[in-house]
Specification:
By secondary structure, the chain is an all-alpha fold. The longest helix has 36 residues.
Amino acid sequence: MALGRMITGFITVIVGASLVPTLVTVINSATADLATNGTQGSAASLLELTILFFALGVMIAGVGTSVSGLVEYGLV
């Protein structure tokens, strides 16, 4: 079961990392739409922070799952 958790953690990181470019494209498009409407500022800043929070969430989920697998093996 521990090996399954470690593999799940690594797959989570790989899938999350592969989705980041798509998320960046969507966020940049939405930020450009805000700029054409004349509403920049906090809305654009919050949209740009979405990328950071997504990357942090994927990293925390993947590493946490992998570490829990390592703990079951007694390696950590």
